[in-house]
Amino acid sequence: MQTKAIPASKSGYDESLQEREGYLANLLTRLNTWWLSATYPFASKGRGVQFHYASEISRRVTPHISLGNQIKIARHAWLTCGTEGPFHLKITIEDNCRIGPCCTISSKNSIHLERGVVLAPDVLIQDHAHAYSDVNIPIMLQGPTPGGKIRIGEGCQIGRGAAILGGRGEIRIGRNCVVAPEAVVLSSFPPDSVISGNPARAVAHSNVTKDCLVRDSAGTT
Amino acid sequence: MQQALVETNPELNIQQHRLAREDPLVWCVRAFTKLRTLWIAWIYPFSSFGSGVWVHFRCRIPRIAARYIQIGDRVILSRGVRIDACPNPGADSPVLILEKGVGVQRGCVISARNRIHVMQNVIMGPAAVVMDHANELEESANSAVNSKGGESGTIRIEEGCWIGSRARIVSVKGELVIGRNSVIGANCVVTQSIPPFSVVMGNPSSIVRHYDLSKGKWVLGSVRRGNAPGEQP
User: Fold this and answer.
1) Comparing B16 with B230, which gets the higher pLDDT?
2) What is the pLDDT at residue A8?
3) Which of A35, A62, A135 is the best mutation test for B, with the most CBs of B within 10 A?
């Protein structure tokens, strides 16, 4: 049975709880939004996208980034992706997403946030890692791994400090999942589940027909 | 629709590649960072300060702590990094050593009271925490700088390690050694020593892979945790 994705404005995300900023900061954010919209060559960008003045998006990677409508990118959020290799979209963020403060989205192949995904502060989404197989060279100099893909379904809520790390293959988090704070997600999860722990496992899933939350005693899926 | 357009139109892509030059405003940030680095190297009384260091202008380094800090060549401290050293009475100076080529990512916290030694070419992911002390519970409302006592150990992170994002390395007692080329996974909490060439993940942390030097290959599965010399397992 299909459930309707909750838009970010109607989910647990409360705009009024956001840090209030001064007039100068708002002005700077507006200027930055205007500057990025006017001069950065995004693959596509919808209306009402807001870039905080302290968010970090390099202009070199913007052809690989596609943004939907009404996205907010908060303070110190960092969107980056590799620019080498054949051209394809590496970061896709759909409508109504919220990228929290200090979030890092680092893509090598593909990271896709569907509609209404809310990222709390300090979330890390990375579809590749540092290679460490050679023991004679420092890990710093070994370069990245080939990595995989990440797709986060509609209306997901990612808790504070959670990390979603792609290895090989595609990681799919179904729609309306809730990822607990400080969870480390390394595998795919079905829709409507509550994901917690390090490494993460599904601790509960919402039963759509009964309209309640069912606790899972079994481990990962 | 937009996505399909971009992926099937190579001419557009080439154009966008050509457009995607560095933003000129980035040079302001780089200039601020360079100025901050020069200012710090000139004014702060560091124990030693290498060449080719980049200290981001949003870095927090208290000036009173600088005399206990040693920074090697080509160290990079990114935005929001907090480095603090407040030596216990009797601790050898310098208390905090960052060797050549250490890369500290955004939002990391390194706080030393006894000794933290980060060796060459270590990378620390975003918001990692390295602390060699704990606050006393009664004084937990105060900051680490204000608390008088508290237990403290020493930390040594050897060459070529990778400390993952939001990993926490806390040593309250004894020596904590993270062996060379080890990987500390994201959100890990490490309170005990880690042997060289091992991959640590999960919470509570466990060694999920390690390199067997005698066999010359990576071995899966948990191995017994190495303890610091002189410490009972």
Assistant:
1) B16
2) 52
3) A135
Q: Which of A196-200, B75-79, B229-233 has the highest mean pLDDT?
A: B75-79
Residue A14 lies in a domain: no
Rounded alpha-carbon distances, angstroms, from residue B104 to A184, B53, B54, B98, B110: 21, 12, 10, 10, 10
What does pTM read for this prediction? 0.85
Q: Which residues contact residue A105 at a Cβ distance below 8 angstroms, ignoring those fewer than 6 apart?
A: A77, A78, A79, A80, A91, A99, A111, A125, A126
C-alpha dist (Å) from residue B98 to A62, B121, B160: 34, 10, 13
- Would you say A213 and A204 are in contact if contact means Cβ atoms under 8 Å apart? yes
- Provide the domain limits for residue A158: 47-215
* Interface test mutation site (partner B, options A184, A185, A196, max chain B beta carbons within 10 A): A184
**Shortest alpha-carbon distance between residue A88 and chain B (Å):** 6
Report the pLDDT averaged over residues B66-93: 90
Q: What are phi and psi of B76, to 5 degrees?
A: -120, 120
How is B198-214 classified by DSSP, letter by letter? EEEETTTTEEEEEEETT
Cβ pair A102:B22 closer than 8 A: no
Architecture of domain B2-220: 3 Solenoid (2.160)
Most distant pair of Cα atoms in chain A: their distance: 56
pLDDT confidence of residue B105: 92
Going from N- to C-terminal start, the domains of chain B cover 2-220
- Inter-chain residue contact B22 with A59, CB threshold 8 Å: yes
Residues of chain A with pLDDT under 50: 1, 219-221
CB-closest option in B7, B23, B160 to A138: B160
d(CA B65, CA B6): 52
